[in-house]
Amino acid sequence: MSTSFTWKRANLPMPEPLREAVQAGMFGVCADGTLTPSPAEVASLTEEQARELVSTLCDLGHLRRCLERHLNPHTRLPLRSWEIREKIERSMRQGVENLEARYAASLEAYVAAFGANAGEQLDMCVHRLLQRPEFALEPIEIQRSLF
User: Fewer CB within 10 Å: N-end or C-end of the chain?
Assistant: First the structure.
């Protein structure tokens, strides 16, 4: 039975952990066997996963905007020298690939623990959250509001 809870005015999924995940010890192991997370622990895990996904997507969006506009991602100033521009943009493209892989891996870990449906719900919630006006800010300002 999956319900939801509110975080940052977003309804995040509140799924039951997968039996296979519990049996595999994904939530911990003690002398008596594996641990099943409580509803409060599931909410905490989901919130933490949402924070990580939001942060990753904010960083990804920032790098993509800088690439499109040929801006230095640290200073947000135009990249003037062709040599420096090429080097920094190559680094930014690698950063984009790394962030995309991090997002996918984070979501896959959540799916392994709670199932594909819960993963899809979390992914949709995170993307909806990022469409709000307050997320049009720079990544550091968004992270300050989240943490």
Answer: N
pLDDT category of residue 1 using cuts at 50, 70 and 90: very low
pLDDT digit string (tens) for 22-70?
Answer: 999 999 998 989 999 999 999 999 999 999 999 899 899 999 999 999 9
Nearest Cα to 50, choosing from 2, 100, 118?
A: 118
Distance between CA atoms of 34 and 70, rounded to whole angstroms? 51
**In the chain, domain spans:** 3-146
pTM: 0.83
Phi then psi for residue 6, to 5 deg, are -100, 130
Cβ count near 26 (within 10 Å) = 18
DSSP assignment of 2-54, as one string?
-EEEEETTEEEEEPPPPHHHHHTTTT-EETTEE----HHHHHHHHHHHHHHHH
